Amino acid sequence: MNTSQFQSNSNLGILGGGQLGKMLLVEAGKLGMHVAVMDPSPSAPCASSSGRFIVGDIQDYDAVIEFGRDLDVLTVEIEHVNVDALESLQADGVAVHPDPAILRVIQNKAGQKDFYRSRGLPTVDYRRFDSLVEIDRSTLTFPIVWKAATGGYDGRGVSVLRSEKDMDGLPDVPGYLETYLGRSRELAVIVGRNVAGEAAVFPPVEMDFHPVANLVEMIHCPADIPDEIGVDAERIGIAIANKLKLVGVLAIELFYTADGELFVNESAPRPHNSGHLTIEGNMTSQYAQHLRAILGLPLGDTSIRTPSAMINLVGAKGHTGSPVYNGLAEVMAEPGVFVHLYGKAETRPFRKMGHVTVVGTDEVEIRAKAQFVRETLTITA
Q1: Distance separating alpha carbons of residues 149 and 151, to the nearest angstrom
Q2: Counting Cβ atoms within 10 Å, is residue 322 exposed (0-12), middle (13-18) or buried (19+)?
Q3: Which residues of the chain register pLDDT less than 50?
Q4: Backbone angles phi, psi at 130, to 5 degrees
Q5: What are residue 226's phi and psi, to 5 degrees?
């Protein structure tokens, strides 16, 4: 697409109609674009806000081909899509971003680890296996981390094994065992990269995880880390984006150890939970950046507009059904608090139902307000 000319009637499609797609639609609307979305659920968050919403299986070859054949540009909001279909559409002239070859790497987390290791990128020591029977338990040092190679998402497919007994209930699927880093912290950076190979990286954020569900509870920006660690994290993020030849945005999760080392955990070639706070907190949001990159527009300024924190709103334990948002009015009455509800029809325990971003100039005040949100706004059925 010629960067000096832009046509808002270009046919853009998104595979996946969840909350990430919904926030992409907001930015696409600012460009006057009408976007087609396909998702298997008729009540997906994008269903009520896309220009054309198709109920279909994003992992089905024929469904993806039918959806994408008349598009100019096709992107994804989740990696779990039919890559064979994307390759066929790309061969027929549809601009597919991220490239299907990238999705093949990302879909398999063990393959991701191989990619990082083979290209000299720092990643935690690991050993792959196709079946649990291949593992000689006598050689293991506990605790150790088990991860499924495929299918893991939002905390699923990961388990810290503290003894050999913990292995007995694991599913017998391909995966890998990874060295346990103990009390390491987790950071994330998001890189935008366009067709010309120009890249812009968002400042690192720090993620706090739920101790049981392994879901991100809160994210802080800027991360409380030494400047040199921030520079190194950004360097690693740009290196991965360049080695993948990415077009779009790429989120990279990193472990930051007590010894001051950084290790790549995993990556996602799409907008990411760790970047929600860029909507209010940065000059350009991750969603706007993704569209800029895939539509051939100039990359935006990624600098911090204001310090911020993001709180994930998840369904309360023991509650399944139509969501009830308790404490919403109290939270919305607070200045500097921005509520995003995804419009999901059903809440389930630990299901992501929305997020809240808190902004301000004082880090202590931001953290206090974020804690108030966590304690006040709950989602029950």
Answers
A1: 7
A2: exposed
A3: 1-2
A4: -95, -25
A5: -60, 150
Q: What is the pLDDT of residue 5?
A: 61
Residue-level pLDDT at 156: 78
Q: How many helices (H) and strands (E) does the chain have?
A: 10, 20
Beta-bridge partner residues of 262: 256
The reply to whether the predicted model has a pTM over 0.90 is yes
Q: pLDDT value at position 212?
A: 67
Phi, psi for 224 (deg, rounded to 5): -85, 75
Distance CA 187, CA 200 (A): 17
* Cα(165)–Cα(345) distance, integer angstroms: 39
- Cα–Cα distances (Å) from 5 to 93, 236, 245, 296, in that order, read 20, 33, 24, 10
Cβ-Cβ contacts under 8 Å for 250 (sequence gap 6 or more): 98, 190, 191, 192, 193, 237, 240, 241, 244, 267, 268, 269
Q: What is the pLDDT of residue 216?
A: 84
Q: Which of 294, 244, 272 is nearest to 352 (CA)?
A: 272
CATH number of the domain at 41, please. Answer: 3.40.50.20
The pLDDT of residue 155 is 66
Considering the domain architecture, whether residues 207 and 284 belong to the same structural domain is answered as yes
**Tokens encoding 67:** 């959806």
SS3 state at 359: strand
Q: What is each CA distance from 79 to 14, 76, 82, 104, 157, in whole angstroms?
A: 12, 7, 9, 9, 15
For residues 291 and 163, membership in a common domain is answered with no
Q: 325: which strand partners? A: 379
pLDDT in tens, 34-48: 899 999 999 999 999
Same domain, 67 and 214: no
* Residue 107 forms part of a structural domain: no
